[in-house]
Design a protein that fits this description.
By secondary structure, this protein is an alpha+beta fold. Helices cover 17% and strands 30% of the residues. It binds zinc ion. The site of zinc ion has 7 residues, from loops. One of its GO terms (molecular function) is metal ion binding.
Length: 84
């Protein structure tokens, strides 16, 4: 069972973890990444115990973000082949 329901606005963005976090009663942090949110994941887990929370958010807020940043699909062919 989920420990709690938490709105994304009440969570804190952690630059180091690259994840939204929320204090866990065990002293660690519940964590969920933007990738998780884009995929529709709504469970933020604590790495130190078995608790988790259900994150309440608008999936569209995160879905848009991805389509704008798709620019790593063009591998450059710069293989220098030494032919004697
Ligand atoms: Zn915990």
């Amino acid at each position: 069972m989920s420990y709690d329901d938490v709105e994304i606005e009440d969570m804190e963005w952690n630059e180091e973890l690259q994840a939204y976090t929320f204090p866990c009663p065990c002293g660690d942090l519940f964590q969920i990444t933007k990738d998780d949110l884009r995929l529709g994941e709504e469970i933020a887990r604590c790495p130190s115990c078995s608790l988790y929370i259900t994150v309440i958010y608008n999936a569209e807020d995160f879905a848009d973000d991805k389509s704008k940043k798709k620019s790593n699909l063009a591998p450059s062919k710069q293989q220098t082949v030494a032919v004697a």
